[in-house]
């Protein structure tokens, strides 16, 4: 099996890390998003392929739908067990000719996870997450190629009341290598209304609380997924379709009553590509130029401005 490029490995590992971005302390895990749904639409863009780099007379558009559900369960005073489920639906739309094997309909990724977080002291916290799921077009029977496995361990240390740092390792079968990859987390509250937070490379950004009910942000995120394609559909064994996206943009989040939050995001896609793989070997790549995106995210939970020590929202001065 060929070892994917560094960017491919980072993109796939981001899928593992994305649910861990609030997990820099036990209290911060609880202030994650127990219920979340999101949709992101990417602007149509011309298609070019590698190795030929030839431009096809067509374009593609991509829409991503995600939903997740988790339930933090306290076990004693210092430990939380958090089971979760997630679902992603990726809908590529092609206009004009595309390489064989990429005339796909919807792609689906269904996952489950179990996270255990333990606070050893007021400063040290250890988080471990294990995930198993399926990623496929689900046109045929579920096979071994549909199964995805991942695991992550991250330790966080609260240097100051305003600054928590984390570091760890993660493994995801989709990276195509048995070697783990590094994760770095940070939560730095620069002022009562300005915060930098995230887990690199999955999602990170600077947030500003304009009012008690409105937050603006500048964010970057990297995500990827690899789907098994039914062998009978194209008469090709071990066929996979992979995608990766890196984007930067701005967001506006409205904090509504009853713990409901609604975020509108828009920005620029700096990197977007599809790969076709057979037996782990890349047979072609579809690159697309920089283009725009827009998304909407709705979640139920805490706002993210809570003090990790007290879980109370700091009031604006």
Q: What would the keywords be for this entry?
A:
317 residues, mainly beta, 16-stranded antiparallel sheet, globular
Number of strands: 16
Cα radius of gyration in angstroms: 20 Å
Distance between the termini: 57 Å
Structural class from helices and strands?
mainly beta
Biggest beta sheet summary:
16 strands, antiparallel
Q: What are the segments in which pLDDT stays under 50 over at least 5 consecutive residues? A: 10-31
Q: Based on Cα principal axes, name the global outline.
A: globular
- State mean pLDDT (0 to 100 scale): 77
The helix content, as a percent range, equals under 10%
Our count of helices gives: 3
Beta-strand level of the residues, as a percent range?
over 45%
SSE string:
HHEEEEEEEEEEEEHEEEE
**What number of structural domains do the residues give?**
1
Structure summary:
The chain is mostly beta strands. It has three helices and 16 strands.
Task: Describe the protein.
This protein is globular. About 7% of the residues have low confidence. By secondary structure, the protein is mainly beta. The chain has one domain. The protein has a 16-stranded antiparallel beta sheet that branches. The longest helix is centred in the first third of the chain and has 12 residues.
């Amino acid at each position: 099996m060929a070892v994917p490029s560094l960017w491919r490995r980072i993109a796939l590992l981001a899928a593992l890390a994305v649910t861990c971005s609030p997990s820099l302390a036990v209290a911060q895990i609880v202030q994650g998003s127990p219920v979340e749904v999101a949709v992101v639409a990417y602007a149509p863009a011309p298609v070019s392929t590698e190795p030929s780099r030839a431009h096809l007379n067509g374009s593609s558009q991509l829409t991503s739908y995600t939903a997740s559900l988790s339930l933090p369960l306290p076990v004693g005073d210092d430990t939380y067990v958090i089971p979760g489920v997630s679902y992603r639906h990726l809908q590529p739309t092609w206009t004009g000719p595309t390489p064989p094997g990429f005339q796909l309909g919807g792609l689906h990724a269904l996952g489950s996870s179990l996270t255990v977080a333990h606070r050893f002291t007021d400063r040290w916290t250890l988080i471990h997450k294990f995930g198993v799921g399926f990623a496929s077009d689900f046109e045929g029977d579920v096979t071994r190629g549909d199964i995805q496995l991942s695991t992550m361990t991250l330790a966080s240390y609260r240097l100051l009341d305003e600054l928590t740092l984390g570091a760890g390792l993660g493994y995801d079968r989709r990276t195509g290598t048995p070697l783990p990859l590094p994760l770095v987390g940070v939560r730095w509250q620069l002022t009562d209304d300005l915060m930098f937070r995230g887990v690199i490379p999955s999602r990170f950004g600077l947030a500003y609380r304009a009012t008690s009910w409105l937050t603006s942000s500048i964010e970057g995120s990297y995500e990827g997924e690899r789907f098994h394609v039914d062998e009978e559909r194209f008469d090709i064994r071990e066929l996979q379709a992979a995608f990766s996206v890196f984007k930067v943009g701005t967001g506006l989040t409205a904090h509504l009553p009853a713990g409901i939050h609604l975020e509108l995001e828009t920005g620029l896609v700096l990197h977007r590509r599809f790969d076709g793989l057979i037996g782990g070997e890349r047979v072609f790549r579809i690159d697309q130029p920089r283009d725009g995106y827009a998304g909407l995210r709705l979640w139920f939970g805490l706002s993210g401005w809570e003090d990790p020590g007290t879980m109370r929202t700091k009031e604006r001065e």
